[in-house]
Amino acid sequence: MKIPQDILNKVEKLRHELNENNYHYYVLDDPKISDAAWDKMFQELKAIELEYPDLVTPDSPTQRIGAKPLKSFSEVQHEIPMLSLDNAFTDEDVTDFDERVRDRLGETESVQYSCEPKLDGLAVSLRYENGKFVQGSTRGDGMTGENITTNLRTLQMVPLQLRGKDYPAVLEVRGEVYMPKAGFLALNKNAEEKGEKIFANPRNAAAGSLRQLDPNITASRPLSIFCYGVGKVEGKKLPDKHSEILACLKTWGLPISSDTTVVDGIEKCLAYHQKMQAKREKLAYEIDGVVYKVNSIKEQEELGFVSRAPRWAIAHKFPAEQAHTVIESVEFQVGRTGALTPVARLKPVSVGGVTVSNATLHNMDEVRRKQIHMGDEVIIQRAGDVIPEVVSVVASHHAKKEIHLPAHCPVCHSTVEQIEGEAIARCTGGLFCPAQRKESIKHFASRRAMDIEGLGDKLVDQLVEAKLITNAADLFDLSLEQLADLERMAEKSAQNLLDALEKSKKTTLARFLYSLGIREVGEATAKNLAKSYGDLQPLFSATEETLQDIEDIGPVVAKHIVAFFAEEHNHKVIDKLIKAGIHWPKVTVAHKTQALTGQTFVLTGTLSTLTREEAKEKLENLGAKVAGSVSAKTSYVVAGVDAGSKLKKAKEMEVTVLDEDEFLKLLKTHS
Ligand code: 9MJ
Known about the structure:
- The protein has 24 helices and 24 strands.
- 36% of the residues lie in helices and 21% in strands.
- By secondary structure, the chain is α+β, with helices and mostly antiparallel strands.
- The strands form seven sheets. Strands 2-13-10-3-9 form a five-stranded mixed β-sheet.
- Helix 1 packs antiparallel against helix 2 and helix 12 crosses helix 13 (457-465).
- A hairpin with a 2-residue loop joins strand 15 and strand 16.
- The radius of gyration is 28 Å and the shape is globular.
- The protein folds into six domains: 5-63, Helix Hairpins, CATH 1.10.287.610; 87-317, D-amino Acid Aminotransferase, Chain A, domain 1 (2-Layer Sandwich); 322-425, CATH 2.40.50.140; 430-504, 5' to 3' exonuclease, C-terminal subdomain (DNA polymerase, domain 1), CATH 1.10.150.20; 509-579, DNA polymerase, domain 1, CATH 1.10.150.20; 600-670, BRCT domain (Rossmann fold), CATH 3.40.50.
């Protein structure tokens, strides 16, 4: 059917108007029309598209909602890693940071910083190709995230098409999705009225809303986004200042915080921190601090990053928020390793807008040190995402009651023991204790371990209580009928869980080792173990001595690892898990000494065939260290075009200087 020209014109005009008004509303914070007028145009566009379905394009404003629920999220590899930020808690931490920056840059004068509010939400990456929004993802572990494109499309302030014409062919924008305070309160009020689960804080609400398989649920949640940086950029050179890149993003239609500013020197950063702290309550969204970023991109590149955090930025956190309340009773929770944690049940109190009714007392040493009793009036504090804690006693009442460590586990009634010199008391029930079983299965299923989607804490409790499972391996024997028979479990969710279990079987050795819940073996240690041993079998016979050759493994951790693999029961569970089909790609064992181990390189100037990051990665893969400034420890300085003060210093100190050709030859010889 031929579509009349006036209809084509009308559709184009409506789409343009809707997008421009969104831009004025969300990005410029300067609405031009009323919500009702916007809705009217939207309905008009929808009606035309209904009549002429051929006119519907993916970037039409009508196409944000209505997408079908997904079965699972696919993975997205971040070509440029999504970094997290190091934290500073005191002014001194911040001045130390500035000193490190100036040292590395060889700069004695003040550095220019971009200051930004630190939003407490979920970091995401938005990818635009030729101006069109093609992919949105979560940070995940920084290298691999989840594809949440359909969910991010539902946010009205995420442009489906960038404005103007001068955007790069490929543009990845990094930002934080958050839930404004008002939206969070309304969402929880509504959930409470319906008897549904309420969210502990806006951060959890934002994360929970984005990680929904059904985009229509995400669409119903009051989410918003601020952009604070870029990832991969192709086809255009962006300005050489961070603040100017943010200004570009704004002209292309992306929302930037209006509280972002540029200052010279760290003193002014501290003043910004104070100003934002005073403004915090009035902001429409929660912030847990501010971020300082070296504004020059060239300097950022020179500084580089360590593990997952850039050396050119730091988050300066606000102090924790506190409130007064009363301890009504104390209960003991049993963790994965049997540790008993005293938890205070409080008279509910609002702390920074969040209702708190439980707070941790950590352990009995802390209870004694702070002289805490039941019935006491106490100060509690909540800092960001961590569990609220009791800080101190304000007043003790006559009715006060001592808190005693129970002699028997409150869950399985096994004896509780406390090893001399250790603060932590433990239930001796081991995996006989349902609490320990539940917690170890929850850990096994958690996101950073086997990442079994849909297997939440409540469901694990249910499965253990119904005696359907006693350990992690039993999960893989569950049938559709068994799951569908559980309370609050429909057949569809049961099938989704079976699919998620199947998907989780493809994992990595590091994740698998972490998921076993060996005491003191966190993610980093699990990665080091995987890298050093390459497979599971060799670990079974590892000794305490050989284990201690590995980075970060000391005598205590080594003992726990050996003890874990000495346990017959653990081998049975591992065998069953492998038989169930859990597998991982082969790990190439890291060689202890590599070609350039012990050598320190300094890179300066621009190389024509490699970026500085690529050169650094190649060197590090050969075991070399890459430093920011020339010192007595420097083995080589690699000088590209426009090498400056570092080259001069290298010559003064008689350090060997390599030009690009010599450097490439050296890499080739050792690769
Ligand atoms: C937040 N969360 O507001 C960054 N962030 O920059 C801001 N996070 C960041 N910047 C580099 N404003 C990594 C993370």
